[in-house]
Amino acid sequence: MLGGTTSSSRPLIEVCGSYVRVAIEEDRSYSWEDLREGLRRYGLGKASEELEVKVRGLLEAYTGLLEATLAEDLYDMVRPRFNGRSFNFGELVGVYTISLPSGTEVVLEVAPKVGWVAYGRMVSEALDTPVVLSSRGTLKPILSSITYQALHSPLSYSLLLLDLTREVLSAPLPRRAEEYRIVSEGSAGRPVHHDTYVLRSKGYPLGVFQRLRVGAAYAPLMLLAVFHDRLARDLEELREVIEERYQGSLGAVEGLLGELDTLALAHRALLWTTVLREHYLAYLRLRPSDSQLVGEAYRQAGFNALLKTVVELYVGYLSRSTLQQMVFEGRLNPVASSKVYELWVLSRLLTYLRGTLRGGKLVEEEARDLYLVVSANGVRVYYNKPLEAPITTRIVEPALRP
Predict the structure, then answer these.
(1) What distance in Å separates the CA atoms of residue 191 and residue 195, rounded to the nearest whole number?
(2) Rounded to whole angstroms, how far apart are CA atoms 270 and 261?
């Protein structure tokens, strides 16, 4: 078990209208008894027992996910932990909405040490980093870590779709061959004998010919456009729900609300300023059902793995299935606050290097725990890469990170 802050504190508990707010801090231990006692003060004795069961289950699930996906590749992260007397969420910052069997709604806030405003600013600035990070990296779904208990939430899907879309639009789009017929006086393709005979038997000196044209596969792009529109609307709806729920303490979620706005705007921008626009307008005219659109999009995607992934992601989102399978496959991982900080530091470093070391380029990136090497003008900068050397090995562990 990794070490961390072990001091015990009391959770802040208050009734806010239709829900109970329980506020704790990352990497601090809290006793189960203090949690139960705090809820009993509001006459919520039954809810106190139910909440303990739910929190234990949540921590157990997180522990399992981390062990299954990160294993020995986990560096510099305080894991969540619990025992019979206390619990600690480690560095998994988040806002967790928990519905108890008795009908009580609990909003559990695991606040970052630096505060929500500073944390939100770090996330926002880190997302501006000029480097495209690995889709398998532990830092990829940054915003998903904020409300990670809802693995089916639009937040979780949003970042994945934005990245997939950039890859789709930067690669050659799939083509499809379409047969169509024309009526002409002269030869204009492969003759359709039966239809030509029908026309001429009626006295028309015309022929029917079949031709072939090749165009962009429209169904996958139509589905992609619809997915962006749906996510934008769902993100906006999620923002309204959070804003209403936190009327008395908007400061706690100010950063999250800002990121929801940013993501919704990003989806709208891709929808209306790229080739997706014409496909979305075509969708509005045709209005195919989801099943029709999914079936045709998957067929037209052919061997394009990116587009097939988009279709599968859309099906998963429609069914409100979780992304847990992606977690176990290593494509999506919980994000610790320390990793958000690492990414923020990285973004500041790269912004500086971009202005001072012209011609700098990324020469190496490891997929599970982010590190990279920036090389420019004979200068090589190692960021977060474990290096072995006789001196550093004697001073600390071999995996010293500059």
Answers:
(1) 9
(2) 14
Q: What is the pTM of this model?
A: 0.50
SS3 content of the chain, % helix, strand, coil (to 5): 50, 20, 35
- Asked whether residue 402 carries a pLDDT value surpassing 70, the answer given is no
Per the structure block, which two tokens stand in for 137?
A: 């990296």
Question: What CA–CA distance (Å, rounded) separates 176 from 185?
Answer: 28
Check residues 376 and 97 and name the one with the higher pLDDT: 97
pLDDT band at 216 (very low <50, low <70, confident <90, very high): low
Return the structure tokens found at 231. Answer: 């996510």
pLDDT single digits (tens) 3-58: 344 455 788 888 876 778 888 998 999 999 999 999 998 888 888 889 999 888 87
- What's the rounded Cα separation, in Å, for the pair 9 and 138? 29
Can you give the pLDDT at residue 367? 35
Q: Is 204 helix (H, G, I), strand (E, B) or coil?
A: coil
Quote the distance between the C-alpha of residue 295 and its chain's center: 25
Structural tokens at position 35: 């949690």
Contact 167, 308 (CB under 8 A): no
φ, ψ at 227 (rounded to 5°): -60, -45
Outline where DSSP puts E strands in 155-268: 175-184, 190-191, 207-216
Q: Are 75 and 57 in contact (CB under 8 A)?
A: no
Torsion-angle region of residue 315: left (phi > 0), alpha (psi -120 to 50) or beta? alpha
What's the pLDDT at 358? 57
pLDDT at 294 over 70: yes
Structure tokens at 159: 């970042």
pLDDT of residue 152: 44
End-to-end CA distance of the chain: 24
CA distances from 307 to 7, 156, 172 (A): 49, 19, 11
The angle that helices 154-170 and 254-273 make with each other, rounded to 10 degrees, is 30
φ/ψ of 319, rounded to 5, equals -85, 0
Closest to 346 (Cα-Cα) out of 336, 356, 354: 354
Cβ atoms 36, 13 nearer than 8 A: no
Q: Give CA–CA dist 206/12, Å, rounded.
A: 84
Determine the residue type at 396. Answer: V
